[in-house]
Amino acid sequence: MNLSVRKLDEIRADIGEDDLNNLLSTFKCSAEPAAERFLKKTAIKHDRESISRTYLAVGEDESGLDTIKGFFTLAIKCISVEEYDPIPKDILEQMNVNNKIAQAYLLGQLAKADGVEKGFGREMIKRAFHYFAKGNEMFGCRVARLDCRDSLIDYYESCGFTFIRKNFDKELNQMVAII
């Protein structure tokens, strides 16, 4: 799979914010409407404020125009670890828990456009892990985390993540992977 992934701020620098907003407005993801809203309404602001970094998978559509095939957003977000959490011992030992807190990279958003081929999400996760590994080399953090709906637990487990627990409001599931 030939995938061109670029940072949102690099694209903004190349084409300007108005054209970037026009490009973002074309993204459609029926499976993840919250992620679609994030990309269109929040990603630029979060990038500008250094809250997160968004990476766009860009390709050409049938007419040769640039189109967003998918995106992912990365950030840093610690995870609290309690004694009663059902974390496998081998994972827990690698998390470097200190005072019930583990440093972690966050895969905050992940979405592919409607009609993109099967396997595209896994390829974007591989790309996200590439960036996590670079961070691990520079800063030493080796935990990646995400929060997902119940229906996505099996998918993320097949991508190397381990279920930790429901989050505090019990709406999402916290999962981790060791880089």
From TrEMBL:
The entry's keywords: Acyltransferase, Toxin-antitoxin system, Transferase
Keyword check for Transferase: yes
Coiled coil: none
Gene3D superfamilies named among the record's database cross-references: 3.40.630.30
Record bears the keyword Transcription: no
MF (Gene Ontology): acyltransferase activity
Cited PANTHER family: ACETYLTRANSFERASE (PTHR36449:SF1), ACETYLTRANSFERASE-RELATED (PTHR36449)
Protein name as it appears in the record: N-acetyltransferase domain-containing protein
Protein source organism: Candidatus Methanoplasma termitum
